[in-house]
Each structure stands twice: as C-alpha cells, then as structure tokens.
Write a structure and sequence with these properties.
mainly alpha, two-stranded antiparallel ribbon, two-stranded parallel sheet, 9 helices, about 70% helix
C-alpha cells in the first residue's frame, strides 16, 4: 500500500495534479496520449492525407466551392479555409502582442464590428446556399474569394471570443488585458486578411502545403480550445495552471477529445455517404 501511495505521489508531482482527482487525471492523460498517438499513426500517413482527413470530418469539400492549389483541392472549402485560417491569424496576433494569457473580451465597439463580420459570413453563406435550390432567389452569384473573405473575418471573431474565455478558464492568474484593445488594432489586421485572400485566390503552387497544414491545424486548434475548457472543469483544474507545464493536462485531454469528436464525424459522414449516396 505504501509503495502504491508513493507511486501516485510521484505521478502527481510530475503531472502537477491537484489533490482533487489525481488518479482520474492520470487515467485521462494516459488515454489521451494513446488517442493522439493512434491518430498520428493511422492511415493516411502523409501530411496532405491527414489534412484531407480533418477536412472530410468537418467540411462538405464541394470541389466547385474549394480552391485548387498545385493541382490539388485544399482540405477545406473556401469558406472553411477562411474561417480556420482567420482563427490561426488571430491567435498569431495575440502571441505576437504577448497577449497569450489575455482574459478579457474586446471592448464593445470591437465586439460590434466582430458581430458584423459574422453577419457578413452568415449572409454570404445563406445567399450561397440558396443557389443549391433550383429556382430559389439569391442576390448575387457566389464567389470563392467572397467565401474566403467572410470566412476569415468570421474566424477572427471566433478566436477573439473563445481565446479570452479559454485563458480565464485555464490559468490561475490570467492577464487582465483585452484580447484586442481597440478598433485600431482590429483594423490593423484587415490588410493581412486582404493580402491572404489575394494570395490564396491566386492559387500559387508553393502555398499548397502551408495552406493545407495551417487550415487543418486551425480546425484542431479551435476544437482543442473548446474541449480543453471542458476537460479543465471535469478534472477540477479550472483556474489551476500557472505554467505551460501545468496546462498540458487539460490541453492534452482537450486535443484527444477533439480528435475523438472529429473521428466520430468522419465515421458518421462515411456511413451517411454510403447509406444515402451523398454526392460529397
């Protein structure tokens, strides 16, 4: 019994586990690492193949609504590519500004503009959807560059809302800074959005791997952020981490849960495609 107690204590020290649920946390971390390793090892083994797998689980991937780079369709459609690249862009801005622990939402004027961005995304998506229905009215012909643009703006909105909540949930002493402090900071990001749209729309061959990797990582990043908060609460680790090492437990569990959810969507889509004969 003493040896078992000593082993649990050592594992607790290594993982920085609070006293509330140490054994449960050890089991969750072990299973999470197993899930992550299996996901890395299962086919397809190539980087582009893995990116396509992520896209298959979360996006319709209709060819006409996707960009083709280097003779290969991107893992996500134009709108989803924009959404998750926009999230990655926003996260990169927070890191560059050293606001990786910012726990306050942007001020009301910035939130208003972000809501407007999501409104553009929803309106363009509805207009695009109406073209799939024969005879249905729509205001304008959808364009992939518009899907990409509104997607990136919506991705910025998502990360600006989710990231401060994530920081407030995970860190013991989160920063009292806002993720974005004012309209000027938000407007400063928009030229990068415009440049990204121009480059992606040009479908330059050398962008294939960067776009495929970043967009699929954006999917995993957003799912991990959300699921890490859930796992922090489940494991009694909300507001616990004071270092990256201590945050690894909810992050690892969140990534594993994201992979499981994504795998479930992949299997469900494969089943429905075979059962109903879906065209995509």
């Amino acid at each position: 019994m003493e040896r078992k107690h000593s082993l649990d204590s050592k594992l607790t020290d290594v993982l920085q586990i609070p006293d509330r649920h140490p054994r449960l946390t050890i089991v969750v971390v072990a299973l999470s690492l197993l899930v992550i390793i299996l996901f890395i090892m299962i086919p397809p083994a190539s980087v582009l193949g893995k990116a396509d797998l992520v896209g298959y689980g979360i996006c319709h991937r209709i060819a006409e609504r996707s960009f083709v780079v280097g003779g290969r369709q991107l893992p996500l459609c134009a709108r989803c590519t924009g959404t998750f690249l926009g999230a990655v862009l926003g996260f990169s801005v927070f890191v560059l500004l050293r606001r990786h622990r910012a726990s306050r939402l942007p001020p009301v004027p910035v939130l208003g503009m972000l809501v407007m961005f999501t409104g553009f995304w929803a309106f363009d998506g509805l207009n695009s959807y109406m073209t799939l229905i024969p005879g249905a009215p729509h205001l304008y012909e959808p364009q992939n560059w518009l899907r990409l643009t509104t997607g990136m703006l919506n991705g910025l909105t998502l990360i600006c809302l989710a990231f401060p909540i994530f920081n407030f949930t995970i860190w013991r002493e989160p920063s009292e800074e806002r993720a974005l402090k004012n309209i000027q900071e938000l407007l400063a990001i928009l030229p990068v959005v415009a440049l990204s749209v121009l480059l992606i729309h040009a479908e330059l061959d050398f962008l294939l791997y960067p776009l495929a990797i970043l967009s699929s990582l954006g999917v995993l990043m957003m799912l991990t952020i959300i699921n890490s908060m859930i796992m922090a609460v489940v494991l009694g680790r909300e507001g616990y981490a004071s270092s990256l090492r201590q945050a690894l437990v909810p992050l690892t569990a969140g990534l594993a849960l994201a992979i499981l959810l994504l795998s479930g969507m992949i299997l469900l889509r494969a089943y429905l495609t075979a059962k109903l004969g879906l065209p995509f």
